[in-house]
Amino acid sequence: MPDSLPPARLLDELDKILGPRGLLTDAADIAPHLSDWRALYRGAAFAVARPASTEEVAAVVRLCAATGTPITPQGGNTSMVGGATPDGSGRHLVLSLARMNRIRALDALDMTMTAEAGVVLKTAQEKAAEAGALFPLSLGAEGTATIGGVLSTNAGGNTTVRYGNARELMLGLEAVLPDGSIWNGLRRLRKDNTGYALRHLLVGAEGTLGIVTAAVLRLFPRARDTALAFCAVRDEDAALALFRRFRDRDESAVRAFEYMSGTGVDFCVRHIEGVVLPLAERADHYVLVDLASSRPDAGLRAMAESVLAEALEAGEVLDAALPESEAQAQRIWRIREEHPEAQKREGASVKNDVSVPVSTVPEMIRRCCAALVELIPGSRPVPFGHIGDGNIHMNLEQPPGMDPAAFLARSHDIMDCVNAVVRDLGGSFSAEHGIGRLKTDMMADWRGGAELAAMQAIKAALDPRGIMNPGKVLP
Ligand code: FAD
Ligand code: MLT
Ligand code: ZN
């Protein structure tokens, strides 16, 4: 194979590997794969490959490696950082894992599920539930995001506080490396110290080191007792104090602990059909506490009521609603889950997915809000998210009436403004969404020196021609 091919020859070769169902070349078919969920980027690609097996992925990657053709791997295309969007050159092949959507195995004794990369996260949750188990990873995009995508971004989400990030939920991996070789590491082992943990290198690599084709996922006992509370709290300190109260009472029961600002909840009530505030009065700060136990007699509702009574007495909680049915519980969760969509509908917004040590979250929120409003008068900070992990989405909504493009032109000033506070508190500029295309220019500043040099050496060793998701992660 020559080390480059004219586009028509390349398409012929791809067609031989994938057949007509596995290759999209029509502009209208390709279009949905060329922009991201946030509509920050629009790229170009000469085709979208949709392999149906690991062998087909390997054959495509071998062809691309031989011809120096850049590959943009894509799962559900819900990346918040433009990670799955090709650049504008038109030289990229988008490689979608959508057709690799089989659950290969599920073992209720090992408590593992072997799922292909294109399995949608919600389907994985449902398959686990059908087997009487739980796959706990949960996030707003779970109806679209895929196993390959959540592993490649090491997604966090709402249950990290209890179960860890995607990385902690993975035991084994199958992947196609940048030279087209297949690595079968689908081991179902709890213990496996056999040299460098390649699986952990690929998790969070955002498609820059290979294509994840399947994974062994950890399952957990399903919840047999649950309780949920939506609380208005006095301020950010009170939110954290409430987290501590629940954690001290029974850490293992805290499945999610989420913070929301009054502004974000107002947006949800305003823009999302069916979302109503379950409390008599609006507040500036809210918390959602979700408790779960595999013990049917855990008494979580009583525990929640008792902790909330203490917190009310202490003036931390102002009011709280505990749902009486599963339908009510789902309505309460929607207030939290619809935050990204509601912000979109309100206008242009800039996302800052940051983390700090948990104890410093209140200070971080207060300092960032003050600095942001000073930077862009009239803008509306919308801090919300996974306060139990120290991970807040310190997002900023445009001032009402401002030209959205003019506001977005300030994106980097806004991110710098938040990042200055985050750095001062010893935090991270990307907690769970990754680097993608959006934050590559921050890598040298935040991770420069030995850390970035090691990452670049790993990339060069595994992908010497730089075909795997170029322009992402590394500056
Ligand atoms: P894509 O967006 O398609 O890809 C993401 C990255 O992984 C890209 O770099 C892509 O090239 C690479 N990739 C995808 N599949 C593979 C593969 N098989 N092999 C190698 N590389 C691959 N993230 C969180 O962590 N927590 C949240 O709470 C959260 N909430 C969200 C809510 C909404 C409404 C949305 C839209 C997104 C949210 N995200 C969240 C961001 C996003 O990271 C996750 O949705 C998810 O991890 C991405 O999965 P995906 O299949 O859509 O991946
Ligand atoms: C979420 O937790 O809902 C997303 O990760 C955050 C966002 O949209 O900024
Ligand atoms: Zn999040």
Notes on the structure:
The chain is of the alpha+beta class. The chain has four domains: 7-96, Uridine Diphospho-n-acetylenolpyruvylglucosamine Reductase, domain 2, CATH 3.30.43; 103-221, 2-Layer Sandwich (Uridine Diphospho-n-acetylenolpyruvylglucosamine Reductase, domain 3), CATH 3.30.465.10; 225-339, Alpha-Beta Plaits; 347-434, Alpha-Beta Plaits, CATH 3.30.70.2740. 36% of the residues lie in helices and 20% in strands. It has helices at residues 7-18, 27-30, 54-67, 121-130, 147-152, 160-163, 198-202, 236-250, 262-271, 300-313, 326-337, 339-346, 361-375, 404-408, 411-424, 440-447, 450-462; strands spanning 23-24, 47-49, 71-74, 93-96, 103-107, 112-116, 133-134, 170-176, 182-185, 211-218, 220-221, 225-233, 254-261, 285-293, 317-321, 349-350, 353-355, 380-386, 391-397. The strands form four sheets. Strands 12, 13, 14, 15, 16, 17, 18 and 19 form an eight-stranded antiparallel beta sheet that branches. A five-stranded antiparallel beta sheet has the order 5-6-10-8-9. A four-stranded mixed beta sheet has the order 1-2-4-3. Strand 8 (170-176) and strand 9 form a beta hairpin. The longest helix has 15 residues, at 236-250. The two termini are 31 Å apart. The mean pLDDT is 97. Flavin-adenine dinucleotide binds at residues 37, 72-80, 83-84, 97, 117, 139-141, 145-146, 148-150, 152-153, 155-157, 206-207, 211-212, 340, 432-433, 436, 469, 472.
- Mean residue pLDDT: 97
Shape: globular
* CATH fold naming of the largest domain: Uridine Diphospho-n-acetylenolpyruvylglucosamine Reductase, domain 3
Which structural class do the helices and strands define?
A: alpha+beta
Q: Strand share of the residues?
A: 15-25%
Percent helix among the residues?
A: 25-40%
- Tally of extended strands? 19
Rounded radius of gyration (Å): 23 Å
Bound molecules: flavin-adenine dinucleotide, D-malate, zinc ion
Please count the helical segments.
17
Largest sheet: 8 strands, antiparallel
Poorly predicted tracts of residues: none
CATH class bucket of the largest domain? Alpha Beta
The overall number of domains is 4
Distance between the termini: 31 Å
> What CATH architecture of the largest domain do you see?
2-Layer Sandwich
